[in-house]
Each structure stands twice: as C-alpha cells, then as structure tokens.
Amino acid sequence: MLENKLEKLLEKGRWNEHKWRRKLRIDVAWRLARAMGAKPCADPVFICGCGHSGTSLVLRILGEHSALYAVPYESRCGESPAPATVFRKFDTLAWAHKRRRWLEKTPGNVRHLKKLTAHFPNGKFLIIVRDGRDVVSSLKKRGYTLADAIDRWVADNREGETFWNHPRVMKFTYEELVTQTQATLERILEFLGEPLEDGMVNYHERPRALCATDVKKSGAEKTGTEHREHRNWQINQPIFDGRGKWRKELTTEEVAFIEQRAGDMLREYGYVLGESSVPGS
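Above: the chain sequence. Below: its structure as tokens.
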C-alpha cells in the first residue's frame, strides 16, 4: 500500500544518520505525495500542556476522527531549528492515510506557542490542565523529585496561561474530560470545526499503537521504552477517572510540601486544598 511505502521512506533512521540524509528521505517522500495530489496542511492541531495531564488520551480520542491523522510520537517540533522539514513529514503521512489534517502531541510545545501560532496562522491549539497533585504523583513514578515535578507543573501552566484567551487556543481540564467526556469532546470538535463522529468515545474498541509498537501492559513506567509501552496500553483502555489518585499515592508530608509550594496556583485553578473534592466531581 502507498502509505506503507511512504512510512518506510519516512521512518526514523539510525541514531547516527546524517541530518541531510534524513531531510533527503523526507523531501523525496513529499515530492512523491505532491505528484499524486497531496497538499500542505494549513490548519493542523497541536495538543500540549504539562506532561502527565492527559495529552496522550486527547490524542488517542481525536485520532479516531476520519479527518485527523494522529502523529504517533512526540516530535518536539517547537524546539526544532528546522520545523518545516518536520511538518512536511506530517503532511505526507496525513495524506498517505487519507486524512485532511494532522494533530501532534508534545506537552512541552506549551513553551513554544508563540513560535507555533506564528508558523501556522490557521492552526488550532489545545491546552489541557490537570490537578498539580495528580501530575506530581504521576511524574514521581518517572523519577522526578517532588520539587522538580511541582515546579514543572507551575512553569508549564504559567506558559500556557498567556495563550488561554488566544482565539485559536482552547484550554480545558483533565477533570472535565473524564467526567463530562461527551460534552467536552463536542466542545473540542466545535472549536476545531469538525463534526462529532460515532464511536470516538469508544476508541478503545479499536486498539492502536501510538506511543509504542505494541498494545501491551508494561510492569513499569520509569524508563523510556517501558514508559511508552505503559502509556500506549493506558490510552487503549476505556476512559477511567484518575482524579485524586494523589490521595493514595502521596504521603501527608508530600501533599503538604506541594500545597505549600504551589497552593496559591492550585486554588487559582479551582482545586481545593486539604479536601477530597476536585473540580468536575
């Protein structure tokens, strides 16, 4: 199939492959696609926010839409010194899979929104926010210290805040997504200018490998490969309510440290300190 041939041409090369060779492969694939009618995507979708806030879940659900091609890895395109080459690759893959637009998920792109919104004047940007205590609980399993984890949550969300009122940016919360899934999905698709399609909420009935090559449960989350396998397994399960898991996974002292360090921001975002309730409950 054509998409398989193009994907083979576009697959990541060896770690020591020269950049010019990688660029050449992408250029050749794009020229082939253009010769057969492909056009650059003018209105892609970017999903970002602090890591472990639900960005992978959003990618998985939206990737079920017939118009959207989900880029199956974090490209960190906001950091790229030559993003045009990266985007050309996405254009080729979206066309090969018969999708009109592509969507890319790199949480850290929240720190590069000025650059990305300027590059794509018709692009759309989704920012997801989650209770910082749940984010810290998750990041802790990846080897983060409490201080580094909560500081990342604060810094990334402060970066995103500056774009919350941008006309091409939509901010929503993880809590809304897991408790009001249908309504939240409808709002997102309306913002993207796409119709809701049957079966999107039941995405898990059609397993897909987005973060790893196989859909299997991994016994660990910390290392790169095991983390990707675990994440890929997670996003192929039905939506589950992960709110408030910090109550079981963090000690009283750890919670106190987090709330002392970022309590004002947690309150500002609507999260209640020292109580069991969270937004959307």
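DSSP finds twelve helices and five strands in the chain.
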